[in-house]
Amino acid sequence: MEKQASNEYVATTANGFVAVAVGVGLVLAAVVMITRAPSLVTLVLSAVSGLVALWFLAGLYTLNPNQAAVLKLFGSYRGTDRKEGLRWANPFFSRCKVSTRARNFNSEKLKVNDLRGNPIEIAAAILWRVGDTARASFDVEDFESYVFTQAEAAVRHLASGYAYDNLDDTVSTAPKEITLRSGADQVGAALLEELQARFSLAGVVVVDAKLTHLAYAPEIAGAMLRRQQAQAIIAARSLIVQEPWAWWSWP
Questions:
Q1: Could you say which architecture CATH assigns to the domain 103-246?
Q2: Are 70 and 95 in contact (CB under 8 A)?
Q3: For 193-202, what is each residue's pLDDT tens digit?
Q4: Region for 240 from its dihedrals, namely left if φ exceeds 0, alpha if ψ lies in -120 to 50, beta otherwise
Q5: CATH 3.30.479.30 location in the chain
Q6: In the 8-state DSSP scheme, what is residue 183?
Q7: What is the mean pLDDT of the chain?
Q8: Buried-most residue among 31, 143, 201, 222 (CB within 10 A)?
Q9: Spatial separation of the C-alpha atoms in residues 126 and 109, rounded to whole Å
């Protein structure tokens, strides 16, 4: 049976400045009790006051903007705190801080075959951030390595699903095929959709994804350039044959 994915929820925490005020107040109270009326009762009370003060002061931690703290109690998830500033939580909670800032990843130039089997080089820039800290912390081993690996797999899969360019395109009125070169918006949307599907397991949100490099592999670049030039000449001649009246419309 497949394990259910973890889901983030808000942890039970408090304002850290209140905890500081309570802790310092209890320390001062313990000092006053010992110095003003030293006795067995005041010693016990001051000791208890000191322990309670330590309880409040030991649970303090800070969070920067766009940072979250994943709280655990003896290995059990106890929620996530996203409120910035000085915070307080149960001192027995272990705290793991996770950045929720946007991060940019530029993939390496990958060599892959397109839909027609032509070897091409392709690379992409991906803007992402952690959306669910529980999934990022518990459902994958290392969410950063997971993102890099899955991003490469997504770019390779995308490239194999489209042709680099439609070299057979002429003056035909039929709808043009979406290619990596001509359909930048559609290809970018498809890449973003596939990345989000892959990243959801790790609680990662894809903000944007665009191709940054696209070219034929060096071993066929020259041949494909000559083919494109020949195709352009054929298309121009076809236009002249199909629309001879254009020659008589010149001024």
A1: 2-Layer Sandwich (3.30)
A2: yes
A3: 999 999 999 9
A4: alpha
A5: 103-246
A6: -
A7: 84
A8: 143
A9: 14
